[in-house]
């Protein structure tokens, strides 16, 4: 289904949004025929309930959407997306939706029409929405398109989304928006001083690479760095099968920054945008890097490899060092980095780290505003000793198991230099079929960051 709203002048079916405590009062204000139908159907305004009301000619005259209670709505988001999935094909116009929920629900409706259908036909919501008055419909479509891109990239299995395919996706995005792209591949990574990207990816069938995309020539400089591990076997510290099943999503950080970049370019946000994606596959072969190896990163720091399955921070380190050399006004990394982050906040929250209080305040507020929840975790300086092994400057996998998300973030901060910096440790996957969030790849933190940018960068 095309990603679009119905035309504003479409002969749309009224969709009345009714809270649980207002259903009877609403019915009492309707003609007896309609009130009788609603009462006979047992419609109470329960959250997610849907009722079609026929006219005298048997065609749909209106539809009702239950909006529950404030307490029930607080336990989720995009509630009308579930209603959209239950409605028959047609155009609908919202009536009675609180104005402060209009943007969230309109975006959720667009996201409900997403389906990953590359390998088989998939069903998605067919009902189209007339954008509520007062909303920037074009902005919402651009945001949804960025999220669709993120989902498509994550959902595609590694056989069709290896480093070369991820490069092709970046090239396609660059072409669409007139961005420039440069790629360093294979042995050239060593020649141009990206030794850890090369080390992690050299055992794979497809060459490791660093993708560098630039767009915009005015405004503050914004650099986005996304972990592009297209599949993670764990390397010589091989993952068990149960842990390997979802590793096609280990490039979720790259997918998320590319989705965010699409939003920024489509909306013509006045920034000098740079996107860095170290794209590799962490595989096993005779030349795979080993536990106990000591690698020297781009910025000269040495790293002892105590687990080859902690590879994401290694490829990000070289990319962050490269990005920091230009001293951008803001640098943000996104990565499906640690299981510890999932233990701490679960799969639905996007934890982030920053030393910048103003940036944190803006992100927290934006996350609530656009229904993209984020949660700040600390760069806890006393844990720095945990990533210092003695034999080298840094340890990529400190022992003990405590504070794993924090120690990983502290590791990355060593490569961001003095740049204003934030790191997101995301999951990138929806575990169930919630409204507007079907099971599969999903963006996290991108919409919050997009909403925060004007204040953070004084745009």
From TrEMBL:
Tell me where on the tree of life, at the top rank, the source sits. Answer: Bacteria
Q: Which GO terms describe its molecular function?
A: manganese ion binding; metalloaminopeptidase activity
| Enzyme Commission number | 3.4.11.1
Keywords of the record, alphabetical order, are: Aminopeptidase, Hydrolase, Manganese, Protease
Matching InterPro entries: Leucine_aapep/pepB, Macro_dom-like, Peptidase_M17_C, Peptidase_M17_N_1
Q: Which SUPFAM superfamilies match?
A: Zn-dependent exopeptidases
Any one GO biological process? proteolysis
> What Gene Ontology cellular-component terms does the record carry?
cytoplasm
Q: Which residues form the Cytosol aminopeptidase domain?
A: 307-314
The entry assigns this protein to a family as follows:
Belongs to the peptidase M17 family.
What is the official name of this protein in its record?
Cytochrome C oxidase subunit II
What is the source species?
A: Roseovarius indicus
What lineage, starting at the top, does this entry show?
Bacteria, Pseudomonadati, Pseudomonadota, Alphaproteobacteria, Rhodobacterales
**Gene behind this chain?**
pepA_2
């Amino acid at each position: 289904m095309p990603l679009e709203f119905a035309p504003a002048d479409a002969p749309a079916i009224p969709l009345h949004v009714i809270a649980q405590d207002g259903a009877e009062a609403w019915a009492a204000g309707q003609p007896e025929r309609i009130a009788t139908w609603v009462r006979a159907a047992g419609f109470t305004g329960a959250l997610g309930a849907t009722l079609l009301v026929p006219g005298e000619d048997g065609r749909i005259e209106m539809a009702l959407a239950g909006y529950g209670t404030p307490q029930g709505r607080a336990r989720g988001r995009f509630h009308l997306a579930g209603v959209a999935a239950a409605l028959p094909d047609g155009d609908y116009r919202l009536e009675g939706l609180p104005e402060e929920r209009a943007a969230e629900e309109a975006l959720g409706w667009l996201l409900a029409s997403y389906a990953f259908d590359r390998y088989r036909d998939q069903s998605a919501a067919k009902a189209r929405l007339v954008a509520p008055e007062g909303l920037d419909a074009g902005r919402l479509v651009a945001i949804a398109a960025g999220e669709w891109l993120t989902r498509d990239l994550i959902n595609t299995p590694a056989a069709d989304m290896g480093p070369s395919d991820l490069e092709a996706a970046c090239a396609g995005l660059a072409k669409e928006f007139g961005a420039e792209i440069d790629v360093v591949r294979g042995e050239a990574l060593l020649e141009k001083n990206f030794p850890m990207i090369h080390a992690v990816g050299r055992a794979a069938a497809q060459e490791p690479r660093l993708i560098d995309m630039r767009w915009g020539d005015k405004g503050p400089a914004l650099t986005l760095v996304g972990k592009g591990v297209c599949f993670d076997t764990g390397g010589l510290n091989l993952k068990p099968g149960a842990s390997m099943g979802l590793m096609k999503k280990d490039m979720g950080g790259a997918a998320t920054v590319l989705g965010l970049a699409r939003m920024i370019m489509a909306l013509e946000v006045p920034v000098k945008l740079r996107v860095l994606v170290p794209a590799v596959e962490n595989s096993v072969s005779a030349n795979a890097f080993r536990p106990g190896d000591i690698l020297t990163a781009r910025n000269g720091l040495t790293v002892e490899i105590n687990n080859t399955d902690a590879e994401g921070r290694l490829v990000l380190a070289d990319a962050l060092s490269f990005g920091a050399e230009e001293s951008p006004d803001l640098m943000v990394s996104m990565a499906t980095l640690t299981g510890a982050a999932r233990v701490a906040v679960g799969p639905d929250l996007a934890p982030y780290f920053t030393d910048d209080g103003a940036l944190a305040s803006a992100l927290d507020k934006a996350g609530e505003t656009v229904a993209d929840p984020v949660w700040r975790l600390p760069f806890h300086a006393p844990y720095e000793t945990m990533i210092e092994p003695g034999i080298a400057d840094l340890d990529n996998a400190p022992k003990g198991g405590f504070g794993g998300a924090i120690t990983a973030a502290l590791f990355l901060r060593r490569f961001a230099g003095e740049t204003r910096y934030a790191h997101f440790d995301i999951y990138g996957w929806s575990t169930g079929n919630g409204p507007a969030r079907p099971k599969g790849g999903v963006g996290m933190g991108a919409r919050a960051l997009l909403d925060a940018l004007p204040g953070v960068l004084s745009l």
